[in-house]
Amino acid sequence: MRDGSVAGIVLAAGEAKRFGGCKQLAKLQGKPLLQWVLDAALASDLDAVILVLGSCHRKVRSVLRTELARQRLQVVINPDFASGQSTSLKAGLERVRHEYSAAMFLLADQPFITSGLINQLRTSFLRSSCRIAVPVFQGRRGNPCIFEHSLYPEIWRVTGDRGARELIHAHPCDVLEVMVSDPAVCRDIDAPEDLDRFTENAR
After folding, report:
1. What pLDDT score does 18 carry?
2. How far apart are CA 130 and CA 99, in angstroms?
3. Nearest CA-CA partner of 44 in 10, 86, 11, 1
4. What tens digit of pLDDT does each residue of 35-48 get?
5. Residues 49 and 41 sit within 8 Å (Cβ to Cβ)
6. Which residues does 120 contact at the CB level (< 8 Å), separation at least 6?
7. Lowest mean pLDDT: which of 19-28, 67-76, 140-149?
């Protein structure tokens, strides 16, 4: 296993225009969506957890005041969230790039990502020589993904409403596909009706 530390960066700054409201605080089984992801990340073996907020950040910090005060969690406010996801990548990366050898990007609208799944991805990455790790469920790539520190400069050059996924396409020989049995890696919530679907399919 290679030496190194992996920080988790939870991307939760978006405006969620398709959702039509503060998606981070939408309730699923009585718990805000963002809290599901934070609980999993903080219960995992990640060496640190960085939460990037932007849209409705004051409301999020007010509602989740206790949750956001937990140890190992750092909160970053991205004032440029309206310019797209790339700005949140950079806001989170700024906190980890000098200290952690890899970053795992987690999405705030994937509530059923578990700490076990996070640990599986992290362990597989650390045991490999690949610079990128991606979970795969039944042939379909999902999230969260891990990127080695050597790729931080390339992530920094991403602009607009784009994530780091283009680096996966740019470095196909550097990608470790981690086969998982959990469809949560391919599930996200885009619209209010998705909440009902998630409730029906909840494990």
Report:
1. 67
2. 20
3. 10
4. 999 999 999 999 99
5. yes
6. 178, 180
7. 19-28
What would the two tokens of residue 60 be?
């999020």
User: By the 8 A CB rule, do 92 and 11 touch?
Assistant: yes
In angstroms, the Cα distances linking 23 to 27, 96, 198 are 9, 26, 14
For tokens 């679907």, what's the residue? 197
Say which amino acid occupies 171: H
Single-letter amino acid, residue 166 = E
Domain ranges of the chain: 6-198
CA atoms of 165 and 203, how far apart (whole Å): 28
Please write the tens of the pLDDT for every residue from 84-140.
889 999 999 999 989 999 999 999 999 999 999 999 999 999 999 999 999 999 999
Q: SS3 for 202?
A: coil
Distance CA 91, CA 96 (A): 10
Residues 95 and 93: their CA atoms lie apart, in Å, by 5
pLDDT of 20 reads 65
Nearest to 10 by CA among 43, 47, 37: 37
**Closest listed residue to residue 150, CA positions, set 166, 169, 167:** 167
Q: Collect all residues with Cβ–Cβ distance below 8 Å to 193 and sequence separation of at least 6.
A: none
CATH level 3 topology of 6-198:
Spore Coat Polysaccharide Biosynthesis Protein SpsA; Chain A (3.90.550)
